[in-house]
Amino acid sequence: MQSLTLRLMGPVELVGPGNVRLTPRGMRARGALAVMGSAVAMRVLRARLQDLLFSTREPDHANASLRQVLREIRIGLGDAREALVSGPGWVGLDARMVRLDMTARPGPDGQMPEFAADLDIPDPEFEDWLRDARMHAEQAVTPSAPEPSLLPVLLTAEPVSSDLEAGVIAAMVMGEAAGRVCDLVPMVAMPDRADPGQAAIVLSSVANRLGRDIHLLVKLSHRPSGRLFWSHKFVLDADNLSASMNDCMAQICVGVMRVLEAVRTLDAALGVSFADVFSFSQARLHRAEQALAGMNDGVSASLTMALRAWVLTTQVFERLVPDPQGSIQQAQELAVKAREADPYSATALGVGSVVEGYMKHGQVSFWLAQQAVQMDGRNPLARYAYSRALTDLGRHKEAHGEAQAGLAEALSVLNPATWQMRMGIALTRLGRFDEAEQRFDAVQQFAPENRPSLRFLAALRYHRHDEAGALAALQALRKVEPGFSLDLMASDTYPVATLRQGGLLGITRSGLI
């Protein structure tokens, strides 16, 4: 099977192996290539193509003219004529043979060419289509030799399926998974036939129906190396399809995140670390802040600023910055800008809620979190922020319920320490100290450098008269928080509001250290 390339930035060009020119001479034939090549899956309704190219002709005449245009394309393809495919009511290009190249190559004058620059078809329908296509291409174009992007790329392949319904369901799951990833970490998703200009992760799938259930095999691989990093087979239960699709989507999202972490050692273009953003380590948080600060991609501007605000707020909570007030104000500014860039982003709203909560703006924090959940109830940051805001308003049973629901979501595995910490605080507020202590123990298993969990462990262990356990927690806290003392813990400025509210600061008078 020959590999062909369709170039649409500048003159329309179709070339084969060895750069052999296969472009038809007729302008309407080249126009048909532009329409098919830029369509979803490179397929277009025959009636639509006919209307774009021959809207001013009588239907019979237009149909005959379209047949002639397609014949001209097929003749130009020569031995690769099977690249022009058709079906009931549609015509298109075989995406397995034809690669779309939207790379813009500057001309001798240094100017970037426009989409299908050589087309001038005197048809009002085509002129309207071409104008819209050129406006879209200005946003989607891939410049030649671009500046190295810090944003990783996820290429999504069209699902392979012999069953139409299974293929549609697979496309829905894959599309939502790709969108969910891009909601959580700065990343660019595009069809796998596009040339991203850098290394990428490829998300592909094969779907089939066995009985009433749909079997879906999903793979994540690295381009250009071709190395397979993740593969998983899912069985979507026909009797509970919605829940099965949601669980499948979440697991694919987690798989993408795992692969991102794995390939960071292979390629700097895939160097975004979700784990760094949601860590509690000073070095990793600093690395995340530096990486996010260097990202200026317009598509992910809101998400990038929101995650920077999250990192800064975590650094303030963890007492890792010399100027907490300045840092939290910077976080607030970033959170506001993130919402301005995308007012409907659940992530931006959720992060904004957390920042406002730290600044003791409880009602504002609640409203932002409430709106975040309304926008996307399955977004983990939205659910976390909502539970936190409920705690700040004293609605502890509801806060615990939200934390439980969030922890039950598959995406909670992306930041387990954060969710276990949220559960521990909610249980402490409810007076369920033994259960809370177990949650803080779990936090330490996931994030030994987490300072707040050590404060809770020391206080809760001392409260149940386990002085040895309390001393161990205090000693561990001293290692990760230089300058810690019991007098400091007892001060009004130290972040132990939940312990103070629960009457658990007896540890500060223990004299254990």
UniProtKB/TrEMBL annotation:
- Coiled-coil blocks: none
* Residue spans of the TPR repeats: 417-450
Tell me where on the tree of life, at the top rank, the source sits.
Answer: Bacteria
Listed A to Z, the keywords are:
TPR repeat
Which InterPro entries does this entry report, sorted A to Z?
A: TPR-like_helical_dom_sf, TPR_rpt, WH-like_DNA-bd_sf
Designated name of the protein: SARP family transcriptional regulator
